[in-house]
Specification:
Layout: E1 6-10, H1 17-30, E2 35-39, H2 45-55, H3 64-88, E3 92-96, H4 99-109, H5 114-125, E4 132-137, H6 140-150, H7 162-178, E5 183-187, H8 192-209
Parallel strand pairs: 1-3, 1-4, 2-3, 4-5
Length: 212
């Protein structure tokens, strides 16, 4: 049996990643492919415990390097308990965020540097990486307005100022430009249905370009 594929969705706050994860799983089901939806930080029991520990403290409580270690510990659990077993049985895994979020947020936004984040990632995952990563891109003010409209409790990153989120947006676009074969930048200002149609086009290409 062929291994499954690993697709990740990245982008700033309010870009609609969670919605598109659900729609991608549905799109794959229509193609007769088993797919699971997951998220980071989280995705299995141990990783969700770490998520609660990490996000349960106010901004500034954790040293940035400590945050990185917590996130990587959760990611290792996620890989071992959820992602790798699903791929081995031939299922596709669709994740709301993965290591590129850490590269953008902690590596660039919080100043640790990509080299530090990438080395920590290699320790827990080796050379493993997503087959395809969508960057859902939209202006920062539009994304933050969407978050405010949801009227839910904000987390530490949603509370950051506009300049921080502008830095993150540029970080994601720079990551995509550096690795265009893996990253696909999608206009997230469109309706959820229109964004889903854009992703569907890339899914069709994926069927013909990835090795069996």
């Amino acid at each position: 049996m062929a291994k499954g594929r690993f697709i990740t969705l990245e982008g700033g706050e309010g870009a609609g990643k969670s919605t598109q994860v659900t729609l991608l799983v549905e799109a794959l089901a229509r193609r007769g492919i088993e797919a699971i939806a997951t998220r980071e930080v989280g995705g299995c029991a141990g990783a969700e415990d770490i998520r609660r520990l990490w996000l349960g403290k106010e901004h500034g409580f954790w040293d940035t390097m400590t945050e990185l270690m917590l996130i990587m510990a959760a990611r290792r659990e996620h890989l071992v308990k959820t992602i790798w077993p699903a791929l081995e049985r031939g299922a596709w895994v669709i994740s709301d965020r993965f290591v590129d979020s850490t590269r953008a947020y902690q590596g660039i936004g919080q100043g640790l540097g990509l080299a530090v984040v990438d080395e920590a990632y290699r320790l827990i995952a080796g050379e493993f990486k997503p087959d395809l990563t969508f960057i859902l891109d939209l202006p920062v003010e539009s994304g933050l307005a969407r978050m405010r409209a949801r009227a839910t409790e904000t987390d530490r990153f949603e509370q950051q100022d506009t300049a921080f989120h502008e830095t993150l947006r540029k970080a994601y676009l720079d990551l995509a430009a550096a690795e265009p074969q893996r990253f696909k930048v999608v206009n997230a200002t469109a309706t959820p249905a229109e964004v889903s149609q854009q992703l569907d086009v890339f899914l069709d290409v994926l069927f013909y370009t990835l090795p069996a």
